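Subject: sequence -> C-alpha cells, single chain

Hey, anyone have a minute? Need the predicted structure for the following. Not urgent.
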Amino acid sequence: MEETTVPKDRQNQPIVVLSFSRAILASLGFTSEQIERLTDEDMQQIAYSLEGRSLTGFYESLKFVVSVFLVEKRWPEERK
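Reply:
Had a minute. Here:
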C-alpha cells in the first residue's frame, strides 16, 4: 500500500474551523451601536481570544469576550 503524505509546506497550514461576523453578534443580542464600536482590529483580537477554546459553548464564550471588549471601550459610559 502506498503511503500518503502531506507536503511539508502544508503541514502547518491552519484550517479554519469556526468563524463569526457582526451579523452573528447581532443574533447574540448585541445592538447595532455596540457592534459598530468594534473595529476590524477588535474583531481580530476577539478571534485570537477564542483560539484554543472548546467548541462546546462557543457562542457563550463569544458573547463573554465581546462584552469584555465593549467594557474596555467604555461602553456604554461614552455614549453620546
